[in-house]
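Our example pasted here:


***
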Amino acid sequence: MKPQNLIIGLVIIQLVLIFSSFSILLVMSLQEEDFADYVNTAGKNRFYTAIILHELDEFSNGIISESDVDSLYNEFYENILLLKNGGTIHEHELDPLSDIFYDDLILVENKFVEFHDIAELLKESKKTGEILPEIFYIEHQRVEVELLDASETLTVHITEEFEKTKHLQETLEIVLPILNGIVYVTMMYVIFRTLKKEGKQLQKLEKLYTIGQMASRLAHDLRNPITVIKASLDFLQMKYPEDKIIQERFVRMNCSVLDMNHIIEDVLEFAKAKELNLAKHSILKILSESVSSLNVPDGVVIELPKGDVEMNCDERKLQAIFVNLVVNSFDAMDNKGKITIKIDDESDFISIHISDSGSGIPEDIISKIFEPLFTSKNTGTGLGLGISKNIVEQHGGKLSVKNNPTTFTIKLPKK
C-alpha cells in the first residue's frame, strides 16, 4: 500500500474512532442515568408493599379511609406500568425496561394483582363485618412475602446490570483513548517516515538534476575536442596505411573515441529526455534490427519471438532499450549462454520479456539497478537502465526485472 493511501486510511480510522468513542460514551452515560431511574423505581415496589401492609392495618383499625388505601394501590400499579411501558420521571423520558427483565417484572405485576385481590377481600369484610378464616391471613402473608421477594429480585437484577454497564463504561473510558493514541502515534510515524522518504527523494532528484546539468555541459564541451581527435586519427590512418603496429594502435584509439562518444550520448540522453517520435512499427522488426546491429559473441544464442505485434512507438528509442538489455545479458552470461525474447499480446498491453541464462542479479542490488549512476560493472556510466526506464515510462509503460531466470519485462500500453 502506498504511504499516501495508508495515511488517508489512518486519518479515517482516527476520525471514526473519535466519533465512535464520543457516541459510545454518550450513549452509555445516558444508559447510566436510565439505570439509576430503573433501580430507584424498582426499589419503590418494595417500599409500596411495606407501606400498604401498614395502611391496611390502619384501615382495619378505622384510622384511615378506603380511598387512602386505594390511592396507594394506584401509585404502586403506576410504578409497575412505568417500568413496563416507560414514561416521564423527574422531567426525563424513561424507556420501557429491557426485555431481559421481563420475567421478573411480570412476576411482580402478577403478585401485585394477587395482593390487591386479597386486600379487596379484606376491605369487603370490613364493610360487611364478616370474620375471615385463618387460612385467609396465611394466604395474605404468603402473597405479601412473595411480592416482597419478587420486588427485591427485580431490583437486584437491575442493579447488577447497572454495575456491569458502569464497569464497561469505565473500561471503555480507558481503552478508547489508548486506541485513539495508538492510531494517532501510528499515523504520525507513517507521516514522518513518508516525509523523510520524500525529502530524501527530493534531495536525490535535486542532486541528480545538478549532476545532469553539469554533465550535459561537459558532454557538449567534450564533443568538439573528440571530433577533432577522431578526424586526426582518420587522417593518420590514411597517412600510415602500411604500418600494421601503428594501425592497430589507431584502431584501439578509435574504439576508445567511440566509447567516449557513447558515454557522451548516454549523458545527453539522460540529462534531457527528447519528445517521442511515435509511429506504427513492428516490434519483431525492431527486435531483429536491434540484434542485427550487435556483434553477438560466438557462445551466445538469441531466440527471437515467433509472433509479431504492431504498435505506436518511437522505433529508435525502443531499439536503444533492446540493445542495452541484450548487451547487459552478454555481460551477465560472460558471453556464453542463451537469450530468449518473447512477446505477449494482452488485452490492453504488450509485454516484451528478455530472459538470459546468466547467474542472476544479486538480491541486495536488484532494487537499485534502475537508479541513475548505479552500476555493478567496472566500466560504464550506470545510466543505461535508468535511460531505458525513462523511455518506457515516456511511452506510458513500465520496466521491471525478476530473477530465476533473469528477465526484464517491458510492458507498453496499446495506444
About this structure: The mean pLDDT is 81. DSSP finds eight helices and nine strands in the chain. The CA atoms of residues 9 and 238 lie 72 Å apart. The chain has three domains: 3-194, 212-271, 279-413.
